Amino acid sequence: MKTFDGGSHIIHLGEVVAAHADELQRPLIFYQSRYMGLDSLRPLE
Length: 45
Known about the structure:
Layout: E1 2-5, E2 10-13, E3 28-31, E4 34-37
Antiparallel strand pairs: 1-2, 3-4
């Protein structure tokens, strides 16, 4: 893994060597300080 100074952030860059997806779990994204569901892109309350 490599680490870079991004000013007010630290950026980590690495290689994915394995992954797993659980089809029973809903994916999330974190955007504008909120978690959003990919299905509707609206905030999860």
